[in-house]
Design a protein that fits this description.
Layout: H1 2-15, H2 24-35, H3 55-65, H4 69-81, H5 91-97, H6 107-122
Length: 123
């Protein structure tokens, strides 16, 4: 029964109209000015201070749990809206680094950058 409800949800999401194209330049700008400040875009060199998991490791964890774009975006957005351990797939990271600070971007921009991240990891 649980599997059929998951399948129905996936079918519903697959039927949702295609979103607007992603503005890659805008998404990268948003990532650089909001996300990469704490979530390094590149692997950490030995001796560097790490204050949050890398963006790639976060994306990898979420895409494994949520392989469909809509679910990936929704799950990360839920955590961004309320950065509590209950909403995170990486509770060990929260224990190690603490809860993330608020993200000061619009829902539209947040969705666009999350879609961009999804498409970078999914390729």
């Amino acid at each position: 029964e649980k599997a059929s409800s998951v399948q129905k949800q996936e079918e519903k999401e697959a039927s949702i109209e295609k979103k607007e194209p992603i503005d890659a330049k805008q998404a990268v700008m948003l990532l650089e000015s909001n996300c990469y400040i704490c979530h390094n875009a590149k692997p950490i060199a030995e001796g560097d201070i790490q204050i949050a998991p890398s963006m790639r490791s976060v994306s990898d964890v979420y895409i494994k749990a949520y392989p469909r774009e809509a679910n990936f975006v929704k799950a990360i957005q839920k955590y961004l809206d309320s950065p509590l351990e209950d909403h995170a797939l990486m509770p060990d990271a929260i224990q190690k680094y603490g809860a993330k600070p608020p993200l000061f971007v619009s829902k539209e921009d947040s969705e666009m950058l999350l879609r961009y991240l999804y498409n970078q990891v999914a390729e």
